[in-house]
Amino acid sequence: MNANHEIRPIQSAIPRRTFVRSLLTAGTATALSPRLLRAAKPASGDKVKLACCGIGNRGAQIIKDLYDTGLAEIVALCDTDMGAPHTQDILKMFPDVPRFQDFRKMFDKMGKDIEAVTAGTPDFAHFPIAMLAMSLGKHVYSEKPMGQSFREIQLMMDAEKKYKVAAQMGNQGHSEANYFQFKTWVEKGIIKDVTKITAFMNSKRRWHGMKVADYLPKQDVPGSLDWDTWLGAAKFHEYNKGYINGDWRSWFDFGNGALGDWGAHIFDTAHQFLNLGLPTEVDPVLLEGHSSFIFPQATTLAFRFPKRGDMPALELSWYDGTKNLPPLPVDMGGSVVDPNIPPPSTGSIDTKVRPPGKIIYSKDLIFKGGSHGSTLEIIGEKGKDMKSKLPEVPKSPSNHFKNFLLACQGKETCRSSFAVAGPLCQTMALGVIAQHVNAKLAFDPATRQITNHKLANEMLNGTPPRKEWEQFFKL
What are the tens digits of pLDDT across the range 240-294? Predict the structure, then answer.
């Protein structure tokens, strides 16, 4: 980001020494000593010493996948509710590993023993964990999307560069066949002159059928849950079970809807290898059941990207909602289904009616694809004619989890680094703002400002954090 066009911080930056003193006064992180505030070194030894934040639901699967590579030693477990049923599997797998409910206390006590950190938490909680970890020279694996606001994502990209850490966003298909095929087909001129992409995720979501006129009523906090730490930098809400265990995805304050949850699995490679960057317009063509609290029941968003070098202007249309089906080519044939799609924490992905996927329209060819690592197919007779002439695609040398751990050791580079994933997540963040305000947005990529909607432009900064969490925006 150009220094002359930075998103305005909520408060002016404070000196490092003052910041450290404030953390120590709050009993947060004695590990934040000046000697540790430097660029990360490659992880030592055969295994990366890994601390895991968020150990249930999706967080649990991340831990298992990283551990299964044989390259990770789990040295700390952190979850705001160690008594929850969904945390028990990981606790049983690693019964002797130190446990924490607050990641700040984990770093305070074990900072010197940790080389890398996972953030397998709700969307809004990725940012403070990742920022503190990177400032301490720890490598970071964060679930997608990276942060809850456009500004958070930018700060995470800046920290990755500043502290020279390995930072991987968890869109695991970015290390599978689709990544290498898309890259090769662009380099060899198979995918070129793309003017339109249709991306869709039409499975039922948690908020479908919900009608709310306010936040949820107060309930008693479970005795095993540290609710204040669960809230993190988010604005205060009274506890209600309708906010936790994946239901946070429904709410603008905590999640990013179907777009933030699935966009990075569907159009991530198109975004990277077509050099999309940031859009100049985001148009909510359809918002069914607009709410100020939860995501719409159905959404169609048109993202408009300008010409990029010799690549033409491109419109990416996003469809979600069970009945908001996109127009598809008449000769499309069957959908592309990735058998390796991980199940959501509740419910299932409907792969029979309309599995998540994309259609890519170029000047001469039309491609169909699914999500995650599924590969593209060329639609129609042209596809059949070209099949034997297509270039060889290299095999992946490592899955997404192994790629991250090898990057921690200095042996590979993260394929979905924050530098790569950040603009993708910022694009989705703009889409979420358009859903929230129900208005067409004009965005200037040079100034990083929404130029036609004052409230939407203020939303780029996200919700002001609670006072004790302000310091994470100064790292």
Answer: 999 999 999 999 999 999 999 999 999 999 999 999 999 999 999 999 999 999 9
pLDDT digits (tens, 9 = 90+) for 193-223: 999 999 999 999 999 999 999 999 999 999 9
CB 300 within 8 A of CB 329: no
What is the length of the chain? Answer: 475
The answer to the question of residue 436 being in a domain is no
Domain that holds residue 409: 3-173+404-424
Supply the CATH number for residue 163's domain. Answer: 3.40.50.720
Q: What is the pTM of this model?
A: 0.92
Type and span of the H or E element at 367: strand 366-369
Beta strands (DSSP E) in 289-356 are 298-305, 314-320
Cα separation of 419 and 463, whole Å?
23
Q: 272: which residues sit within 8 A by CB, 6+ positions away?
A: 420, 424
CA-nearest of 328, 322, 316 to 266 is 316
Nearby residues of 170 by Cβ (< 8 Å), 6 or more positions away:
62, 120, 141, 142, 143, 144, 400, 416
Is pLDDT above 50 for 26?
Answer: no
- What is the pLDDT at residue 2? 41
Q: Average pLDDT of 378-387?
A: 90
Number of domains in the chain: 1
Which 3 state secondary structure label does DSSP give 80? coil
Bond preceding residue 344 cis, omega within 30 of 0 = no
Report the C-alpha dihedral over residues 398, 425, 475, 29, rounded to 10 degrees: -60
For residue 452, being part of any structural domain is answered with no
